[in-house]
Write a structure and sequence with these properties.
Blueprint: H1 2-28, H2 50-57, H3 64-95, H4 101-110, H5 116-129, H6 137-140, H7 149-159, H8 164-172, H9 177-188, H10 190-206, H11 209-214, H12 223-228, H13 239-259, H14 261-270
Helix pairs in contact: 1-13, 2-13, 3-7, 3-10, 10-14
Length: 274
């Protein structure tokens, strides 16, 4: 009876956790007037696809496809920037000997403890002085400068597990540091790179605060900011369209995670192991 009770408790807890997602899915196919009057998980007689048609049309002058494309651009460039820049920084901290390496590594790790909101004003002033406001540059350029300390630490821990004999053999063959990094460390670091890519995509896709601050034109809005446009405190809010587009916006995240699931688990499991 003990395994039966344990599995029953786990299934019940799982249902409680996914109930909001199930309700979101059901509400996306309901008529807007019946969304908050039908607590069940089946649209029933209120079933409709009009929410997806209305939501995809967006604001009329800006369709939701524009928000979708903007999010794909920002998330895609964030993945490329974080994977390449953080891998280079991780290789430097793990394999190169340079002055104040330990001090710089400690300072870099200390940035993880900095509150995000404490950096918003200095960053906004910096990007404003550079003329980058209302562009994707504030959302993308920092990713190419290895500003994500978590991913740098991930690569450092992974690169430390690679035997030093491989590096010595490459030096004997005349390889420089970049050749060693590109030909030896990058192929071996695919699990860590997949982990970085998955988290970078999910975090960039779900980011709401930074696009809200730096983007002013609706043509540049990402999915998260575009979803907020369906809610209006001064007029009628279109909850049906918002729920429908929320469901659509979940598809890239779920697909990206499922595609890299095995490498993601391998990267987390092997990082830090000797």
């Amino acid at each position: 009876m003990r395994p039966i009770l344990a599995h029953t408790a786990l299934i019940s807890a799982c249902f409680v956790m996914i109930y909001p997602l199930l309700w979101l899915t059901a509400s996306a196919f309901r008529e807007p007037a019946a969304i908050f009057t039908s607590p069940g998980l089946w649209p029933g007689e209120h079933f409709t696809l009009e929410n997806f048609v209305t939501g995809w049309q967006g604001l009329g002058f800006v369709g939701f496809s524009t928000f979708f494309a903007n999010s794909l651009i920002v998330a895609g460039l964030s993945v490329v920037g974080n994977v390449f820049a953080c891998a280079l920084a991780g290789y430097a901290f793990a394999r190169l000997n340079f002055p104040f390496r330990r001090t710089l590594f400690a300072l870099m790790m200390g940035t993880i403890m900095l509150p995000l909101h404490a950096l918003l004003i200095p960053q906004y002033i910096l990007f404003s002085s550079l003329g980058w406001l209302d562009t994707f540059l504030p959302l993308v350029v920092p990713k190419f400068l290895a500003t994500e300390a978590f991913f740098v630490f991930l690569f450092v821990q992974f690169f430390r597990t690679i035997p030093g004999e491989l590096t010595d053999a490459a030096r004997i063959d005349g390889c420089g540091h970049f050749q060693i990094f590109w030909r030896i460390f990058v192929p071996l670091a695919l699990p860590a790179m997949a982990t970085t890519a998955a988290f970078s995509f999910i975090w960039a896709w779900n980011d709401f605060l930074h696009p809200l601050i730096y983007l002013n034109s609706p043509q540049n809005y990402t999915v998260t900011v575009g979803l907020s446009l369906f809610l209006d405190a001064t007029s009628e809010s279109n909850y049906g369209a918002m729920f429908a587009m929320s469901l659509v916006s979940l598809l890239p995240v779920v697909g990206f995670f499922l595609s890299f699931q095995k490498l993601l688990v391998a990267g987390i499991a092997t990082t830090g192991m000797k």
